[in-house]
Amino acid sequence: MQFTVKKIADLKLDAGTKDGVWWDDEIKGFGIRIREGGSRTWIYRYRKGSNQRNMKLGSVAAVPLSVARKNAGDLEAKVRLGGDPAMDKLAARQEADNTLGLLAAQYLEARKSKWRPNSYTEFDRHLNKYAQPLHRFPISSISQRQIVDLLDDITKKNQQSGPREPLRSV
Questions:
Q1: Stretch 80-102: mean pLDDT, rounded?
Q2: Which of 50, 97, 150, 155 has the fewest other C-beta atoms within 10 Å?
Q3: Which residues contact 39 (CB under 8 A, 6 or more apart)?
Q4: Residue-wise burial string across 62-87, b where 16 or more C-beta atoms lie within 10 A, e elsewhere
Q5: 31 in Cβ contact with 22 (< 8 Å)
Q6: pTM
């Protein structure tokens, strides 16, 4: 069926069915899923090798037909060029979880037994105190500019606090 705003509004489930999917004639894999409770969701379905993948494009109430159609068209183009949008989305989600804070903690834990206690303390201080402003960022999104700014801030703070007292042996 050719999706139009009026046709979509008129879609109804058959009696006794829990959900249904209707497909657009214009864009292969673009459809609307209607659930028994009344929710309506834009979907995009495609096949990659022997695997079928589904992606939600948003609620019909929140995403207008024109936007959903454009998004589905973009996804269809990616699939035709050999891409896998669902896998890309999963990889991006996993990459976002690799924050500097998490990786610094894993690094310190893995190296702890190999370092002398003072070396561990220094690395811990540098990674957990000085680099703390970057802990929330995914490691792949941290730019050289952010690192330069961080090092400049550390330098300024150390210059303002004056020289450190030398350590004294007791």
A1: 90
A2: 50
A3: 59
A4: ebebeebbebbeebbeebeeeebbbe
A5: yes
A6: 0.62
The answer to whether 51 and 85 have CB atoms below 8 angstroms apart is no
- % residues pLDDT > 90 (the chain): 71
Q: Are 57 and 5 in contact (CB under 8 A)?
A: no
- How far, in Å, CA of 67 to CA of 54, rounded? 18
Question: Domain limits of the chain?
Answer: 5-83, 100-161
CATH superfamily for domain 5-83: Integrase, DNA-binding domain (3.30.160.390)
| φ, ψ of residue 117 in degrees (nearest 5) | -55, -45
Burial class (CB in 10 A: 0-12, 13-18, 19+), 24: buried
- pLDDT per residue over 113-168, tens digit each? 999 999 999 999 999 999 999 999 998 889 999 999 999 998 888 887 666 666 56
Is residue 111 a contact partner of residue 123, using CB atoms and an 8 Å limit? Answer: yes
Give start and end residues of each alpha helix (H) in the chain: 5-10, 65-80, 85-96, 100-111, 117-125, 144-161
CA contacts within 13 A on the Cβ side of 169: 0
- Say which amino acid occupies 20: G
pLDDT of residue 165: 62
Q: What is the rounded CA–CA span in Å between residue 101 and residue 137? A: 8
